[in-house]
Amino acid sequence: MSQRHLGLLALGLILxxxxxxxxxxxxxxxxxPAGSEPQPEPSPVRWEGSVAHLxxxxxxxxxxxxxxxxxxxxxxxxxxxLACGVKGKVHESVFVLxxxxxxxxxxxxxxxxxxxxPMPERGKGPxxxxxxxxxxxxxxxxxxxxxxxxxxxxxxxxxxxLPDSPWIFNGSMVKEGRFMGFSEESLVVTYWDPYxxxxxxxxxxxxxxLLYANPRTVPPYGTPVTFHFTPR
Length: 232
Fold this sequence. Notes:
Layout: H1 3-16, H2 19-24, E1 45-48, E2 51-54, E3 57-60, E4 65-72, E5 81-84, E6 93-97, H3 101-110, E7 130-140, E8 143-148, E9 153-155, E10 160-161, E11 167-169, E12 174-175, E13 178-179, H4 181-184, E14 186-189, E15 198-200, E16 211-213, E17 224-231
Parallel strand pairs: 5-6, 14-15
Antiparallel strand pairs: 1-2, 2-3, 3-4, 4-6, 4-17, 5-14, 7-8, 7-11, 7-17, 9-10, 9-16, 11-15, 12-13
């Protein structure tokens, strides 16, 4: 018997020995092979005038701006992402956004953005697709602050803030019928990633050692933020 079958048999015996927990479960327990778990469905689009709501993602079609909310997750140290989902790589992401990744991609498509040919692998680019700008909004000392996303990124080699740069909507790819934006919930990345929805359009995206969170500009940990995505 293979190790895999032994593992499944052991799990079955463990479950059989816990009748109290089994009695509380209305649905049968299903074990999915890795990579075959059901993926979340996209949220239905709900329109209010020119504003569309896709789950927690908002599209103002009149100005082609997509908005999503989250919080500050990292204030210093090396990063590979500007923003990830709640199940993403939070150990190297400046912000976390509370959303369904496929809702973000759908809203960006509704805003008129189009993705390009996927990159072959991580760090191999540049990314292809339409350019957009990202601004981050938050409250500080009773006032509304709003800055471009590059402000929160520090170039360790140049010892300078990342210059004004486009972000590229490459669009997360579909592989074997699965939307890869769910794999690590990489929403906006600073290190080029074909599974991410948005990639940095600066050459520093090819190297995962060059970019850090900017402690001089990132708001305090846990600060609520709103991201605004607009075609460039």
